[in-house]
Design goal:
eleven-stranded antiparallel sheet, 4 helices, 11 strands, about 15% helix
Length: about 240
């Protein structure tokens, strides 16, 4: 388990000075990496074994979004392993109050061909906190695609990539929320986010983005990778007034 303090930066917020989901994901990504490093499962250790972690699902609940300049504490731990899937949990605190939490599911894959690697055959003793035993935030098998309307295309750029040479998971909510007609980052905030990562996207890939109308504070956004012919992600977001 790892905890770290973070001060919300001015470049990580919307016009209403509230943190973007993508910013929270970046804080989560770095804290998770530090947690793995402390356990001895460093990026170099994994790359020497031609192996990387890839996220498959994410569920984020924001009870009170942190503001620009606010110092918060983020806690992360590997809660359980079920089959090939790792459940990593995140909790955000401000002044001792829980203001957000996230459940995320990950798998191990070979870096070169992206084939799955079973945890027991990886050769590392992963510790599990076992606090929940299952994701604390509900993670659906799928998100309904009913009523989606094509709203544009988005090319994957070099600045979107990470060390695994694909579209970084922190960029997905930005792509999705840029496509939500009615959300301006001023009068409302994102109170929940669910993202199912279907297939990775590479530099130069063209994503066809479709979304549902924003109704009753909920919107769904899907992206299909036109270049590879695969679904890229499906997502759902909840919104509340500031």
């Amino acid at each position: 388990m790892t905890e770290r303090q973070i001060k919300i930066s001015s470049y990580d917020v919307y016009p209403n000075s509230l943190a973007k989901p993508s910013a929270l994901q970046r804080y989560m990504q770095q804290t998770a990496r530090e947690d793995c490093d402390q356990a001895g499962c460093t990026c170099r250790f994994m790359r020497e074994r031609n192996t990387v972690f890839v996220i498959t699902k994410l569920g984020l609940e924001i009870y009170r979004p942190p503001e620009e300049g606010e110092t918060i504490t983020i806690k992360t731990y590997n809660d359980s392993i079920t089959g090939i899937t790792f459940d990593r949990e995140f909790e955000f605190f401000s002044g001792g109050d829980l203001i957000a939490r996230c459940s995320s599911l990950w798998v191990l894959v070979k870096y070169d061909d992206r084939t799955l690697v079973r945890p027991r055959s990886f050769g590392f003793d992963f510790e599990c906190a076992g606090i929940h035993g299952a994701p604390a935030v509900e993670l659906p098998r799928a998100i309904s695609s009913e009523g989606l309307i094509k709203c544009g295309e988005r090319e994957v750029r070099l600045s979107d990539l990470d060390e695994n040479d694909h579209l970084n998971n922190c960029v997905y909510p930005d792509i999705a929320l840029d496509s939500v007609d009615g959300f301006d980052g001023k009068s409302s905030f994102v109170s929940s986010a669910t993202v199912i990562f279907r297939h990775e996207a590479r530099r130069g890939d063209i994503l066809e983005v479709s979304s549902s109308p924003l109704e009753n504070g909920i919107c769904r956004v899907f992206a299909r990778d036109i270049t590879s012919g695969n679904p890229c992600f499906e997502s759902a977001f909840g919104f509340k007034s500031v």
